[in-house]
Design a protein that fits this description.
Blueprint lengths: L3 E6 L4 E6 L4 H7 L18 E6 L2 E3 L9 H5 L2 E3 L3 E3 L3 E4 L3 H11 L1
Parallel strand pairs: 1-7
Antiparallel strand pairs: 1-2, 3-5, 3-7, 4-6
GO molecular function: 2 iron, 2 sulfur cluster binding
Pfam family, one: Fer2
InterPro entries: 2Fe-2S_ferredoxin-like_sf, 2Fe-2S_ferredoxin-type, 2Fe2S_fd_BS, Beta-grasp_dom_sf
């Protein structure tokens, strides 16, 4: 079993590696990629909200104001608080687009 996984951002087509001890956002920064905006890095501002399309992950604490339980079940999470358990495919879209996507799923 590997401790490093491949992260694929679908909108810009960027690839980078992430260990299970790193958040998705931290791995992106260390790889020198720019596909997710960076805010507080602590799960409180909601700026780094992404849609996980495939893969498994664990989450640290996130503000329920930005990610409620239903959003989390749909794979909408904050990149600063997501830790991969497998390779992940995700996309970043501005918050208004993510909200629209969530409404379509409901």
């Amino acid at each position: 079993m590997t401790d490093t996984f491949e992260m694929i951002e679908l909108v810009k087509g960027l690839h980078f590696s992430c260990s299970r001890e790193q958040s998705l956002l931290k791995a992106m920064e260390l790889a020198g990629k720019r596909c997710i905006p960076v805010g507080c890095r602590g799960g409180g501002c909601g700026l780094c909200k992404v849609q996980v399309v495939s893969g498994e992950f664990s989450c640290g604490p996130m503000s329920k104001k930005h990610v409620d339980e239903q959003s989390r079940r749909c794979g909408q999470v904050l990149a600063c608080r997501v830790y991969p358990l497998t390779d992940l495919t995700f996309e970043y879209r501005p918050a208004a687009e993510l909200a629209s996507t969530q409404q379509q799923v409901q």
